[in-house]
Amino acid sequence: MPTGFETPTDSTGIIPLKHTAIRSLVTGGAGFIGTHLCEALLARGHQVICLDNFSTGRESNIAHLRGDPAFTLLCRDVTQALQIEVDEIYNLACPASPAHYARDPVQTVKTSVLGTLNLLELARTTGARLLQTSTSEVYGDPIVHPQTEDYWGHVNPIGPRACYDEGKRCAETLIFDFRRLYGLPLKVARLFNVYGPGMSPGDGRVVSNFAMQALSGEPVTIYGDGQQTRSFCFVSDMIRALIAFMATPPEVTGPLNLGNPAEMRVLDLAETVLRLTGSRSGLAFRPLPCDDPVQRRPDITRARRLLGWAPTVGLDEGLRATLAYFAGQCELPPIPALRPLPPDPVAAEALRAI
């Protein structure tokens, strides 16, 4: 966790902020998606307050923002009550990969439930809009395909993934109960498999795993037979969607599926990564973990209608930018077919545009 940072407060205990622009609180703001969101909001002239406990977020992600006078970093845990003057809240605070939330499942539940409750109380006292980033994991291992927002899911409530799945489901319950009780401007977005530059190399997600293994010449590990499907959304597309959703009228609550409906097998993803890197890595098959979904694809009809949004970055373009990021960030043995790998111009332009 960063040191030497103190949070100033006034005599009431409320953290004062100059109200010269929209004041946006981004919890989990030093994480992968949170960092991109902070950058995009600053580019739009917002005053951004990034809150992170750095359990999975990285100080290096937001180091380049620390000198911006419109950027404030709060080194805090979202499970602690917060008093701060804000206009809108993006709640991204929660470990989002199995490798991370398995380390402390109880804290993962606390982050989703107590953290969301604290932010709802903050929204209630300040009148701030709140956008809760939920997850496709609320659908569990779905038996309805593709998944629409009115599908209730197929979740194992006592399995090793339940701390994340059920924590997010409970957070959604709190959102809608507060909406019914207090009429607050609250929104729920269900995110599907986001990837892109800024991902942590060791976060255990499939794109990170495949990229790092291919770049380092290690066997690319596939759990199960690789026939299970996922849908991958480039981070710039997701940031556009989140900002557009926050800007919708108060009565637009969701939930809203946000993701790329282009579905592919995990085996095909591995082969695509190998093709783009030119890696000679082979494939290594391992047993499928408990409760790993067989299929995952969002129906984004509602997002298209309400936001006028759809993903624009294709998988090859997004993976090229992501692989270039990993190659530049990590000290890896050189692979001639990859180095140097220039970012794909479409993906690079998408990142500049958010």
Give the helix/strand layout:
Layout: E1 23-27, H1 32-43, E2 47-52, H2 59-62, E3 71-75, E4 88-91, H3 98-101, H4 105-126, E5 129-135, H5 162-182, E6 186-191, E7 194-195, H6 206-215, E8 220-223, E9 229-231, E10 233-234, H7 235-246, E11 256-258, E12 263-265, H8 266-277, E13 283-286, H9 301-307, H10 315-329, H11 345-353
Parallel strand pairs: 1-2, 1-4, 2-3, 4-5, 5-6, 6-11, 7-10, 8-13
Antiparallel strand pairs: 9-12
Helix pairs in contact: 1-7, 4-5, 6-8, 8-10, 10-11
Main location: Golgi
Domain NAD-dependent epimerase/dehydratase: 25-251
Keywords: Decarboxylase, Glycoprotein, Golgi apparatus, Lyase, Membrane, NAD, Signal-anchor, Transmembrane, Transmembrane helix
Characterize the overall form: globular
Helicity level: 25-40%
CATH architecture title: 3-Layer(aba) Sandwich
Identify the strand order in the major beta sheet: 3-2-1-4-5-6-11
Rounded to an integer in angstroms, the radius of gyration calculated over CA atoms is: 20 Å
CATH top level is Alpha Beta
CATH topology, which one? Rossmann fold
Q: By CATH's scheme, which homologous superfamily applies?
A: NAD(P)-binding Rossmann-like Domain
The helix-and-strand class reads alpha/beta
In short:
It is found in: Golgi apparatus membrane; Golgi apparatus, Golgi stack membrane. The chain has 354 residues and is of the alpha/beta class. The chain has eleven helices and 13 strands.
